[in-house]
Design a protein that fits this description.
The complex is a heterodimer of chains A (331) and B (254). By secondary structure, chain A is α/β, with parallel strands linked by helices. Chain A has 13 helices and ten strands. In chain A, helix 2 packs across helix 10 and helix 2 packs across helix 11. In chain B, helix 3 packs antiparallel against helix 4, helix 9 packs parallel to helix 10 and helix 10 runs antiparallel to helix 11. The longest helix of chain B is centred in the N-terminal third of the chain and has 35 residues. Classes of the chains: A alpha/beta (331), B mainly alpha (254). The interface between A and B is medium-sized, with 21 and 21 residues.
């Protein structure tokens, strides 16, 4: 009798647990799942997405966004193959996707930051305040043709001689400590490493690439999506971008709160760095553009045209390749 | 006659399997079961190999030099530590656990640290190769020394032989089979370790080439370099076999 009672109790309990679980999965099935790939560890470039997640903007649009990190910093292949739907990439990184023997089927759908906020950081004590002064100094390079072409252009625009620059292989994990060793200059993003240097009290100079040529004011970082996904689920993409824009608008208007949300969802980040970075970046997300995320075709095409002009590209990339404003909420 | 045809059949089976796998691969690509941008077809890989052959050879020579010097250093460390640990029990008890510990640290974790401490030239790469390759040598030699014929050693001692003579006439030749087996393992590790250390920074070498083609999404060239690395490891293993055959003449009598 006792054994029978125990058996019934356990069956009852397991059924009720299963029923409760069924309820959860049933409500979750109404939300469409999207895998979103970052380009690196989470930072203030991605704030809008984290805000949208925390504040339920994605849920309001019927989406469930899973934010993931690729193991090697390249979302393009995974987005193209459909393992992830949307990811973060860079206009420069995508060049081989559009020029290789087999094109990688991805398209840029939104600009996370309107203007190029990257540049070179150097120690104030090195006295390197402009690219010309990089002569006879060292630059830590990833050995990428586009990267080297940009360094060459900024040096030559400033009247310097690129061949006098010593290139050393970049094993830089931390730009601030690197420039305090025998590396003189490192490629960084202002919003993260320059702010960090200021917080840590390391006196540095920053040379912005876009100051040395309008061709260098290209788009990074950007959001990309696989072409198959765009074709088959356009409404989902538009919903994602609507919610994401709301997240970024919030970050622009309330940088401190947005910083708190980012730190809450990514506790490994240093809150002082995030807050100050967010305050600087708040004006940069949309900057002078009429709408968030919109690409200016002249700037996009201008960068690729310049790459062809300086022989980094052997064949030109046709104008209008690789980006679209069609999924953005422009109304 | 029967043995010869058996040998031929034995050799045909792996070659046949290999061709079958390549055939399946070509079929998958030709029918777009996997999209072309994700998986290059065998013909594209061969074309990439032929097209980039001079460049591949140039990078391969750099990698081979790093592997060679690293392996030499590894063999040196291996011999030295094996002899030390065989001779002094104290050394064995204190160093052996540490030696085993070094092998549990993932190579990819040590490599950037070595570059940080030693710069970005060839030195950290050779050291990484040495760190990965010395362990099999040490273990192989140590086992070989310990398993030397006790009776022969006693006989030599009775005849008044010193430690060095015992080593030279009994311990060393007795451990040579073990040594060559370990060397075969180490030689494959050496190539892989050299490539991994090149991933982290460098201007020349197969690892650098691999990173460049990966960033260009040129997967046909990526497969080509992967196959080249395999072929290099196989060739080196065969060379070790040849070396063993020529030096250990007494093994041939079998």
């Amino acid at each position: 009798m006792k054994n029978l009672f125990c058996l019934f109790m356990s069956m009852f309990m397991s059924f009720s647990i299963m029923a409760a679980d069924l309820n959860n999965t049933a409500s979750q099935h109404k939300l469409k799942s999207i895998t979103f790939l970052l380009d690196w560890t989470p930072n203030t470039n991605h704030t809008g997405i984290y805000v949208a997640q925390k504040k339920g903007f994605y849920q309001d649009e019927g989406l469930k966004v899973n934010i993931a990190q690729p193991s090697d910093g390249d979302a393009a292949m995974l987005v193209a193959s459909g393992k992830a739907q949307i990811g973060v990439s860079f206009q420069g990184t995508l060049v081989p996707a559009f020029t290789g023997k087999h094109k990688i089927p991805v398209t840029a759908i939104a600009a996370l930051i309107q203007h190029n906020t990257s540049g070179l950081i150097t120690l104030k004590s090195s006295g390197i305040t402009s690219p010309r002064e990089l002569e006879n100094h060292k630059y830590a390079t990833w050995d990428m043709p586009i990267e080297k072409a940009i360094i060459q252009k900024v040096m030559e625009e400033d009247g310097g001689n690129y061949s006098k620059l010593t290139l050393i292989p970049s094993t830089v994990a931390d730009a601030i400590s690197a420039i305090q060793t025998d590396v003189d200059s490192v490629w960084i993003y202002y919003a993260w490493d320059k702010i960090r240097a200021d917080i840590e009290g390391v006196k540095t100079n920053f040379i912005a690439f876009k100051d040395y040529g309008k061709e260098l004011d290209y788009y990074n970082p950007i959001l990309i999506a696989g072409n198959a996904y765009l074709k088959n689920h356009p409404e989902e993409v538009k919903a994602f971008l609507r919610a994401t824009e709301k997240g970024y608008q919030f970050a622009m208007k309330h940088p401190d709160e947005a910083a708190k949300i980012l730190c809450e969802l990514v506790p490994e980040l240093d809150s002082q760095l995030v807050t100050q970075s967010q305050e600087w970046l708040a004006d940069q997300y949309q900057a002078d553009a009429a709408h968030w995320g919109k690409f200016d075709p002249n700037r996009w095409d201008g960068f690729y045209a310049w790459l062809y002009k300086v022989n980094v590209l052997k064949t030109p990339i046709p104008a209008g390749t690789g980006f679209t404003n069609a999924y953005l909420p422009l109304d | 006659m029967k043995k010869k045809s058996q040998n031929i059949i034995n050799k045909c089976i792996p070659i046949g399997t290999l061709f079958l796998l390549i055939g399946i691969w070509a079929f998958v690509c030709a029918n777009n079961i996997v999209p072309a941008f994700m998986l290059p077809s065998p013909t594209e890989v061969i074309e990439a190999f032929i097209r980039d052959f001079p460049l591949l050879m140039q990078h391969a020579s750099v990698t081979l030099v790093e592997a060679f010097w690293g392996l030499t250093l590894g063999i040196g460390i291996g011999f030295f530590s094996a002899i030390l640990m065989d001779e002094f029990n104290f050394a064995y008890r204190s160093f052996y656990p540490l030696v085993v510990l070094t092998q549990t640290i993932p190579t990819i974790a040590i490599a950037p640290l070595l570059v940080l401490w030693m710069g970005y030239g060839m030195a950290p790469k050779m050291l990484l190769v040495a760190l990965t390759t010395f362990f099999p040598i040490t273990i192989g030699l140590l086992d070989g020394f310990k398993s030397s014929d006790r009776d022969m050693i006693d006989l030599m001692r009775a005849m008044g032989a010193g430690k060095i003579q015992i080593f030279r006439y009994i311990k060393l030749p007795g451990s040579m089979t073990n040594f060559f087996s370990s060397l075969k393992i180490s030689v494959t590790y050496s190539i892989v370790a050299a490539v991994i250390s090149e991933w982290l920074g460098g201007f020349n070498g197969l690892g650098v080439y691999m990173i460049r083609v990966k960033k260009s999404y040129a997967f046909d060239e990526m497969f080509a370099v992967i196959f080249l690395i395999s072929i290099l490891s196989l060739v080196l293993m065969k060379l070790i076999d040849l070396l063993k055959y020529t030096t250990l003449k007494w093994e041939r009598v079998k």
